[in-house]
Amino acid sequence: MSIPVGHYQYDRIDRDFLQARIAEFEGQVQRRLDGTLSEDEFKPLRLMNGLYLQLHAYMLRVAIPYGILDSRQLRKLGEIARRYDRDYGHFTTRQNIQFNWIRLEDTPAILRELAEVDMHAIQTSGNCIRNVTADEYAGAAADELVDPRVHAEILRQWSTLHPEFTFLPRKFKIAISGSPNDRVAARFHDIGILARPGEDGAPVFRIFVGGGLGRTPVIGQELFDSVREEHLLATLEAILRVYNAHGRRDNIYKARIKILVQAIGVEAYREAVEAELAQMDLERYRLTPEAVAAIQSRFAVPQLEAPADADAVLAQQRRDDPLFDRWVRSNTHVHRDPGHIIATISLKPAGGIPGDATSAQIARLADLADAYSFGEIRITHLQNVVLGHVRKDRLRDLWMGLAEVGLAEANIGLIGDIVACPGLDYCALANARSIPIAQKLGARFADTALQAEIGALRINISGCINACGHHHAGHIGLLGVDKRGEEFFQLTVGGRAENGAAIGTILGAALPEDETVDAIARLVDCYLGRRESGETFLDTLTRLGHEPFREAAYETV
Amino acid sequence: MKRPVRLEPGQKLVLTANRLLDGRTVWWCADGTWDLHIGRAALLDADEAEAVLARVVAEAQRDGVVGVYDTAVQAAVPPEPVTVREKIRAHGPTVHPEFAVETEQ
Asked: Name one Pfam family in it (chain B) (predicted).
């Protein structure tokens, strides 16, 4: 088997471990079914294997390490959707995929099928280090300084079944990017890592701690500016040890690292980490160039060859076809190779369910990845799909192939590119439905020409305060709340997860569900009516302040 | 101790759970079985529900269900849950009408 482009190639040890883990879980399932294990005993065991019990069925969350798949793996996910689910899967805001209609007794068989393609569902739940997320343009973007995937893989191996960090006070999320343009929401993670080249050319890492969304949104603070590569694992180990020792276990709402960092202050946290480092055996955690190279060698490098006229061919095709040109404007990003381009495929069709893809669409995406991007696929934390290395002269063929399965929506980064959690239609924690309001907004702003006219505007929707839809980070955020059995939505504006991270400000009292879409339309009209040349929604909001937008949102209330 | 249930006029209680094997939402029937359709659920008065609930919880493993609890419904035909959450559990996700529980046998 050839080494995949974009992600680490498992070896025998990885595969033996997965088989042993599946056999263990199969025994646990059997003991649950025969009553040897109670539900209380079984619940933490199934959660460690990514299996939740939701409103209508079990939900299996499958890990996609740093969001990167090969076509063989994606095809397998489509097969699982068709055979074990209801013919679709849901891509999540942590670059994973969820299946919503899973039978408990099928789960060991599903895990065996996943293991056939080097995949699993371990640590997609529970109070452990979750799937490490990374820049969806890693290894491809022109603006990238350091490819973060090798270090993301090192973090995956370090954090998988880490004996000290399997029972943390609460779940723990890490993101890593190697671009000066934050595409991973680094400041909203328990640990956010931004890599850049050091003076000697080797990578150094800027580390933020204590960010997060949920009930208490907090922007992460810089703990260290320039951690050298050799000390990366020791530093992360020390940060986790301090959290594990001092994080609160008496109150689930105060158990995340952000609460600890707020309570003692980032300076005290840094001192505690440095004290921990001073008494650690640093040699044991030293990340040597040889170790990094060994991991690097298990990633294949795409051979980026393109005809000399690739750029000219694309330019002519854009002139000839305005619809294609619109898609290129919104759905592509500059590649480091001048003959290639990064294509983002929207999973946000107008009126559709954000992040959902049918098994037929998943299979077609795998075929298109084989044909156009070295068989490599990336899942974004904004619930879309990226083909990272598309030859410019073949981009239009890809676009036409996507259109055949309803995946050619031209709305990336625009108002139709809505992020939404599963909400009360599926989730046992939710207070309100996220998907229907996303569908109504998507339908309201379906016209892609209008979306392009509105420009950059992100809407994020969460069905409860746990904020899986990252509403605090949305330019416009919606939080579903339950008021005496009725669904209401609280609006925030001004959030952003990219550079200059900010938490959205609540505009006012929550609105009834049936008034929410009109209120957002008035917010957009307010912006369009008052923006100055070249301004985005956030620019206008910053210049004018919240008051005109608050008045617009509530003008008929 | 379980909090006392306050029912509005015209409301009753039903018992609900998820099936152990597949997680599907089910409703407790007067003959002691569990059914996908809320229309077959036994309607209970508040003063009898606590004892029935205790008995049904004790038999949950034998009956192959998980997480038994009671919830209020309007005592119509078929009964309709009071909360949005339970309406969605009873009828299926609102975003996939093709998955409506009513269309299943």
From this structure: DUF2849
Chain A residues within an 8 Å CB radius of B18 = 53, 57
Say yes or no: A293 contacts chain B, CB-CB below 8 A: no
Q: Count of domains in chain B? A: 1
Q: Which ranges in chain A are annotated with CATH 3.30.413.10? A: 133-296, 419-553
Lookup: tokens for A171: 């779940």
What is the structure's pLDDT at B104? 77
Of B23, B61, B99, the CB nearest to A53: B23
pLDDT, residue B14, reads: 98
Instruction: List the single residue in B with minimal CA-CA distance to A85.
Output: B22
* Confidence (pLDDT) at B1: 46
Q: Which of B62, B67, B95 comes nearest A439 by C-beta?
A: B95
Architecture of the CATH domain A12-116: Alpha-Beta Complex (3.90)
Q: pLDDT confidence of B103, banded at 50, 70, 90?
A: confident
Report CB contact under 8 Å: B23, A436.
no
Is the residue at B2 inside a domain? no
What tens digit of pLDDT does each residue of A318-337 get?
999 999 999 999 999 999 99
Task: Tell me if ipTM is over 0.90.
Answer: yes
d(CA A550, CA A548): 5
CB atoms within 10 A of CB A86: 17
Average pLDDT, chain B: 93
Q: How many CA atoms lie within 13 A of A296 on its CB side?
A: 11
In a domain, B6, yes or no: no
A103 touches chain B (CB under 8 A): yes
Closest CA relative to residue A352, chosen from A383, A330, A328: A383
Q: State which residues of chain A have pLDDT below 70.
A: 1, 556-557
pLDDT exceeds cutoff 90 at B5: no
CATH of A310-403, one of 3.30.930.10, 3.90.480.20, 3.30.830.10, 1.10.150.20: 3.90.480.20
**From A352, which residue of chain B is nearest by alpha-carbon distance?**
B95
Partner-chain contact B93 A32, CB within 8 Å: no
Please list every residue in chain A whose beta carbon sits closer than 8 Å to the beta carbon of residue B25: 55-56
What superfamily does domain A133-296 belong to in CATH?
Sulfite Reductase Hemoprotein, domain 1 (3.30.413.10)
- According to the 3-state scheme, what is the secondary structure of A334-366? EECCCCEEEEEECCCCCCCCCCEEEHHHHHHHH
> What is the interface size between A and B, counted as CB pairs within 8 Å?
67
Q: How far apart are CA A549 and CA A419, in angstroms?
A: 21
* Architecture category of domain A419-553 in CATH: 2-Layer Sandwich (3.30)
Domain, as residue range, for B77:
11-103
Distance between CA A62 and CA A381 in Å, rounded? 14
The pLDDT of residue B105 is above 70? no
Residue A181 corresponds to which amino acid?
N
- The string of pLDDT tens digits covering residues A275-295 is 999 999 999 999 999 999 999
Domain assignment of residue B76, yes or no:
yes
Whether residue B3 has pLDDT greater than 60: no
Q: Where in chain A is the domain with CATH 3.90.480.20?
A: 12-116, 310-403
Q: Do A38 and B21 touch (CB under 8 A)?
A: no
Cβ contact B84–A486 (<8 Å): yes
- Give the chain B residue nearest A427 (alpha carbons): B85
Tell me if chain B has a CB within 8 Å of the CB of A54: yes
Listed in sequence order, the residues at least 6 apart from A188 whose beta carbon sits closer than 8 Å to its beta carbon are A211, A212, A213, A217, A219, A220, A470, A472, A473, A497, A501
